[in-house]
Amino acid sequence: MSIISTSTQESKKNKTHLGIIQLTNHTDLPTPQIKPDTPPREIFISKTGSQPIHGAFPLYDELSLTTVAGNISATIYPQPARRSHPHMPARVRIRSGSGSIQVSFAAPASISAMSQQKPQPQQETEKEEEEWSHACGYTSSHAQCSRDQPQANIFFFESLPSRHYEVDIETDSGSISGIFVFSSHIRLVTRINNYTEGYNDKGEDREERVPDGSINALLIPFISDTTALPPCSHSLLSYSDGTRNTSASILTQTGSGNQSIRLADPVTAFEGSNKENKRNKNKSETKRFAYLSMWTLSPFPFPFSKTETAAVSPPPAVASHISSSAGNLNITYPGLWTGHVRARSGLVLSDEAARISGLGMEVVNASSHSAFAQRYIGQREKKKKRSASAGTGWWGSRGDMDVSVWSGRGHIVFHVE
C-alpha cells in the first residue's frame, strides 16, 4: 500500500506527514512505481480542537478521519482495488472525541470528478494540505455533500466496486448516523452515558437522560465474488491475543443513547455494471458458491473441487446491539435473514420491555423483559423475495446467525420485515 517512495531507508520505517495527510509506507510489500499524480491509497486526516471534517472522500484501501471535538460529515466514494491486490479490503475508520459522526456511502467517483467541487474556504498553512483539499473536494457545508447522498433504494449500490468493505466508527460523546455499506464487519460505538437514576420525593424512580449518543443507521451488506474472500490478516477487528475475527460480525453499542438500526437485504455485485462485475457474470454458479464457502481459509483464490468445498462451512455470523444504560433499541432485519435472536432488558417490572416480531419468527421463550426466537430457512421462504438471486452466498441467510440485543434500562423491539 505504498504511495510515495523515497530513496532513504528511514522513510520506509516511519510515517510521512504531509500536512494532515499521513501516508504509510509498508515494507512487507514491494514498492510499486507510482506516477506523481496518483492519489494515495491510504488517507489519514486529523483535526485538532473543535475543527470539523466535512466533505467527500475517495475510499481506496483505507480512509481514516479523526477529530478531537469537531463533528464529522463524510460522503464516501468507494474506488476499485489494485489489480495486483484485488482482495485487499477497503477500510473506513472514523474517530471523534466529542463530535457527532454522519457518513453516507455514494456511487464511485474519480478524483477528477470530485475536484470540480468547491473547496473548503479555509486558509491552509500547509501547501500539501491545500492541494489535497482541491483533489478530495472538501466542502464548506454538509448541504453540498448531501446532494450526492444515496436514497432509500439500496440497489443503487450494485454499481460499487466489487471488493471487501469494513467499517469501524467510534465517538465518545456524540451520535452516529448514516448509510453504511459493509461486507462482513461493521462496528458503530458511542460511549456517552448521560443517564442518572434515583428516586424522587414520592419514592418513584427518577430518570434523567439527555438525548445524545444515539445511533441511527442503515446497514447494507455488500456481496460479490471478491468479498467472499476477505484477507482476514488485514481485518480491523482483532482480539487482544492477536487472533483474528474470521466470522462476519455486526456491533452497535451505545451508553444511554437510543438505537434505530435497519439491516437491509444484501446487495450483490454479480450483476453490476462495471467491467469487473461483467466478467464475474460469466462465471459459473458453482464457482461462485465455492468462493463463498472457502473465504475463511485463504486470502488468495486457488483451484478446488466441488467435493472439497462441500465439507467446509464458514463460522456463524454474529451481531450484537447493546445499550449499557437506558437506551431504547429498535432493530429491524430483512426478510432474507435467518437465525436466532436473544433479547433482554433490565426493565424487569415493565410489560413487554423486550419484543420480537416478524413473519416466520418462532418465539421459543418470552417474558416481560426477555425473549428468545428463531427463524428457519423454510420459514423465510414464506416471504416473497425481492429477486431470485438476492442474498446469494450471504452469511445472514444461512440459518446460523446469532443475534443478541440487550439494554440495561431501555425497551427493545426486534422485528423482521
Structural account:
- Residues 1-37, 109-115, 117-152, 228-244, 271-311 and 384-391 have low confidence and may be disordered.
- It contains 8 helices and 25 strands.
- The chain is mainly beta and 417 residues long.
- Strand 22 (362-366) and strand 23 (370-375) form a beta hairpin.
- The chain has one domain (29-416).
- It has helices at residues 9-13, 111-114, 127-136, 142-146, 275-281, 285-293, 306-310, 377-380; strands at residues 16-18, 21-23, 42-47, 53-59, 62-67, 72-78, 90-96, 101-105, 165-171, 176-182, 185-190, 196-199, 205-208, 215-223, 249-254, 259-263, 267-268, 318-323, 329-333, 339-345, 354-358, 362-366, 370-375, 401-407, 412-416.
- It has an 11-stranded mixed beta sheet with strand order 3-5-7-9-11-15-18-24-20-23-22. Strands 4, 6, 8, 10, 14, 16, 17, 19, 21 and 25 form a 10-stranded parallel beta sheet that branches. A two-stranded antiparallel ribbon has the order 1-2.
- It is flat and about 55 Å long.
- Residues 109-134 are annotated as: Disordered.
Give the terminus-to-terminus CA distance. Answer: 41 Å
Structural domain tally: 1
Individual helix count: 8
| Cα-atom radius of gyration | 22 Å
Our estimate of the beta-strand percent is 25-35%
Mean pLDDT across the residues is: 69
- The level of helicity is 10-25%
Shape: flat
Order of strands, widest sheet: 3-5-7-9-11-15-18-24-20-23-22
Instruction: Give the low-confidence spans.
Output: 1-37, 109-115, 117-152, 228-244, 271-311, 384-391
Region (Disordered): 109-134
